[in-house]
Design goal:
Blueprint (H helix, E strand, L loop, with lengths): L8 H4 E8 L2 E10 L5 E5 L8 H5 L3 H6 L3 E5 L16 H16 L4 E6 L1 H12 L4 E7 L15 H11 L3 H11 L8 H13 L1 H13 L18 E6 L7 H10 L3 E6 L6 H4 L1 H12 L1
Parallel strand pairs: 3-4, 3-5, 5-6, 6-7, 7-8
Antiparallel strand pairs: 1-2, 2-4
Length: about 290
């Protein structure tokens, strides 16, 4: 599927320096649009992921609707500096997002989080409630286990194997269960993802080191969801083989003001697999 985009990765690319535990980290983000309200989009933890790779099918629609859109590359992904995380990565990402927003002068944001991005969005909402408008959580958010599917899930096992052995064959194995319809994963897309991964072996190595130091990178915040007063839209793929749907139901039960939408024929990447409907639904929710 080829579409002409109004905004390009290169034209929206920016860097900012943020301090973390006495160390300066150079973080990359894409910044599009100049609306009064800002939407931050946070990507997942797959090898080769980045803000742009995760959300390039969503940027134009949100800018056209009048929002400023910020896609952050979390530390250890994309063009941001690498890091070994020995504690909670959800909280690390939340702290650094606050640092980025403070530096660029943005006070309050809506957050769209996919997978790890969902965990980070919840951590941010718990730590800085006054900075959050609305939350959109897809394929992540509590860090808690599924009650019905053995953990780690099939998809997470393939993701971790890919970090340890970043080959095209292992990438194909992961992407084959990442989305509902693997035929949408074109050779071009796979090669781009492989290039992203291999360009930053430090990211891959540090992720493996982080897992060794702390296997539970994303703590379970299920018991604290009731503290979050922001309206939330929980979106899940019925066929998600990375984070099963019952984890999404736990979010809906725990968040005081949450709605749920389940996409059929959809894996772990709702914003990409069902981009047009996703964009319409989220924009209506934010409005």
């Amino acid at each position: 599927m080829t579409t002409t985009q109004a905004h390009s990765e290169a034209a929206t690319s920016k860097f900012v320096s943020v301090m973390e535990n006495g160390t300066e980290l150079r973080l990359h983000y894409n910044d599009a649009g100049d609306g009064k309200e800002t939407v931050v989009m946070l990507h997942g933890s797959g090898p080769g992921a980045s803000g742009w790779a995760n959300f390039n099918r969503n940027v134009d629609a949100f800018v056209d609707a009048g929002y400023r859109v910020i896609l952050l590359d979390c530390p250890g992904w994309g063009k941001s500096d690498s890091i070994v995380c020995t504690g909670s990565r959800s909280d690390l990402n939340a702290r650094l997002l606050k640092g980025v927003l403070d530096t660029i002068g943005v006070e309050r944001v809506h957050i769209v989080g996919n997978s790890m991005g969902g965990h980070s969005a919840v951590a941010f909402a718990l730590a800085y409630p006054e900075r959050v408008g609305k939350l959109v959580l897809m394929g992540g958010g509590t860090g808690g286990p599924s009650q019905f599917v053995p953990m780690p899930t099939e998809g997470i096992k393939l993701l971790q194997a890919l970090y340890r052995e970043p080959t095209l064959e292992n990438l194909k194995k992961m992407l084959n269960v990442f989305v509902y319809d693997p035929s949408t994963m074109t050779e071009e897309l796979m090669q781009a993802r492989l290039s992203n991964m291999l360009a930053r072996r430090d990211h891959l190595e540090n992720f493996v080191k982080s897992l060794a130091a702390n296997p539970k990178q994303f703590p379970d915040y299920g018991h604290r969801l009731g503290e979050i007063k922001s309206p939330a839209l929980v979106i899940w793929g019925r066929d998600d083989r990375f984070v099963p749907m019952d984890v999404g139901l736990r979010l809906v039960w725990g968040l005081p003001e949450a709605d749920l939408h389940v996409f059929g024929r959809c894996g772990h990447w709702a914003q990409w697999e069902h981009a047009e409907k996703f964009n319409r639904m989220v924009l209506e929710f934010l409005a």
